């Protein structure tokens, strides 16, 4: 099975429901997810051949593990992981020399939106441990906690990818404005979803449905204090001023466009009237000349 095969097996027996005790601090960069998505798209569209070893292509990077697509790990993923860790194959021995405890990242394209309409981060990271079952030692996965860490260059890349694509025929000012407003709307909608999630967490905590996590509550409190407090009167005054300025600019632009149209119409009328005047003067001069010649005869 290649890394691009999507696993749909719902058998979770190979994933143990225990917390990780390895003490690893895992950070996921958005650029990694963009690379996985790009790999998945290229594979589906182009079906390219197997790429070279990542360590040979990117010698400055360290090998931390491998990834696949699917909802939950299955036996095929476990066998592939075990093979990559213990195989005597030359290529797999390089993996073992680089990292003896490889991580397994699984991205689920089908779980972007849940039944409640909340967008979940469709990424799970697993560590491998040896577990004893039926007096036999077996390899199993356990979920590992991780956090999303973003650099400045990745913010630029993610912002570029998030913008709606436009064709060469749709490069006008109106389409550019629509694309910008669409991006802003999506960002505001995501912010609203996250705020609703925090509000629901606080409500469930207050009603004792879930235990209170003081660290999370302190972070929410710090976030609320960081947000600026808007004064209604000052905001309405500033908003009214900016709104009037925008309307004034729009009216001036309309007047300017109307004046240009009138000027074009005047130029065309002058051109037409000037042509008629010159034709009439030529006709009158020819009549006078004919009368003189007739008088001489």
UniProtKB/TrEMBL annotation:
Residue ranges, compositional bias (Basic residues):
288-297
Q: Which segments show compositional bias classed as Low complexity?
A: 277-287
Q: Principal localization?
A: cytoplasm
Q: Where is the EIF3F/CSN6-like C-terminal domain?
A: 152-267
Taxonomically, the superkingdom here is Eukaryota
Region Disordered, annotated ranges: 276-297
Q: Name one GO biological process term.
A: protein deneddylation
GO terms under cellular component: COP9 signalosome; cytoplasm
Q: Where in the cell is it found?
A: Cytoplasm; Nucleus
Name the InterPro entries on file: EIF3F/CSN6-like_C (IPR024969), MPN_CSN6 (IPR033859)
Q: Which UniProt keywords apply?
A: Cytoplasm, Nucleus, Signalosome
Q: Which PANTHER family does the record match to this protein?
A: COP9 SIGNALOSOME COMPLEX SUBUNIT 6, EUKARYOTIC TRANSLATION INITIATION FACTOR 3 SUBUNIT F-RELATED
Q: What does this protein do?
A: Component of the COP9 signalosome complex (CSN), a complex involved in various cellular and developmental processes.
Which family is this sequence assigned to?
A: Belongs to the peptidase M67A family. CSN6 subfamily.
Q: What is this protein called?
A: COP9 signalosome complex subunit 6
Native organism is Choanephora cucurbitarum
Q: What is the lineage of its organism?
A: Eukaryota, Fungi, Fungi incertae sedis, Mucoromycota, Mucoromycotina
Coding gene?
A: COPS6
